[in-house]
Amino acid sequence: MTDVAIETFAKIGGHGEIVRKLYEVRLALPDVGFSSFHSADGVHYSHAAVVARIQGKIVGIISYDTLEYNQSIFIYTGWVDPEHRRKGIYRQLIGKLKEIAAEKNVVRITGSTAFNNNDMQAVMTKLGRRPVAIVYEMDLNDAGDK
Ligand SMILES: CC(C)(COP(=O)(O)OP(=O)(O)OC[C@H]1O[C@@H](n2cnc3c(N)ncnc32)[C@H](O)[C@@H]1OP(=O)(O)O)[C@@H](O)C(=O)NCCC(=O)NCCS
Predict the structure, then answer these.
(1) Which of 75, 76, 90 has most ligand 1 atoms within 8 Å of CB, for mutation?
(2) Which residue, of 13, 15, 69, 112, has the fewest CB within 10 Å?
(3) Which domains does the chain have, with CATH numbers?
(4) CA atoms within 13 A on the CB side of 29
(5) Cα 100–101–105 angle (5° rounding)?
(6) How much is the pTM?
(7) Residue 125 carries which DSSP code?
(8) In tens digits, what is the pLDDT along the chain, a chain of 146 residues?
(9) Whose CA is nearest to atom 5 of ligand 1?
(10) Ligand 1, atom 24: closest residue by C-alpha
């Protein structure tokens, strides 16, 4: 199997390559476009990241934030390069995140996906996450406020 290198970033700010990749990835995510909840601008310099590389190329990424007030980690983006899916890369990224969580005394990892992103929901369930809420949204503009 190809060697995957896992890197961690406490803050993505100052790491232009990672910030650019996150914008690129989020614009391509099937979830973006459904709601502000998954909007492509959910990239912030203060977010942290776990990154997978093969021969220097970024092939997977999880961006997240640690929420001190409830000892949790919130995942903003989870993505693996289509050419490298189904090889356990996301499993490795989540594994690293769980190690980081343990070091920080975090008790819970939370994250969302679109209601119809069945693939991601299947992967989340496989990796031990469970569905806990459905988010409802109403747009208050000419098109949505009817
Ligand atoms: C979801 C995603 C991150 C999974 O990455 P991946 O590296 O292919 O996942 P892994 O290979 O680590 O798979 C983890 C487990 O999920 C399973 N799995 C992976 N893709 C699956 C799919 N499409 N359907 C069902 N199960 C799947 C694997 O079989 C594995 O389980 P196993 O170890 O018991 O066999 C990747 O498909 C992706 O980037 N999707 C598009 C981005 C996206 O929708 N992100 C969510 C927006 S919030």
Answers:
(1) 90
(2) 69
(3) 5-126 (3.40.630.30)
(4) 30
(5) 120
(6) 0.94
(7) H
(8) 679 999 999 999 999 999 999 999 999 888 887 777 778 788 999 999 999 999 999 999 999 999 999 999 999 999 999 999 999 999 999 999 999 999 999 999 999 999 889 999 999 999 999 999 999 989 897 665 55
(9) 90
(10) 119
User: Which helix (DSSP H) or strand (DSSP E) does residue 27 occupy?
Assistant: helix 16-28
Q: How far is CA 98 from the centre of its chain?
A: 14
Whose tokens are 């980081």? That residue is: 100
Full DSSP string of 46-100: T-EEEEEEETTEEEEEEEEEEEGGGTEEEEEEEEE-GGGTTSSHHHHHHHHHHHH
Q: H or E stretch including 6?
A: strand 5-9
Under 8 Å between Cβ of 75 and 62 = yes
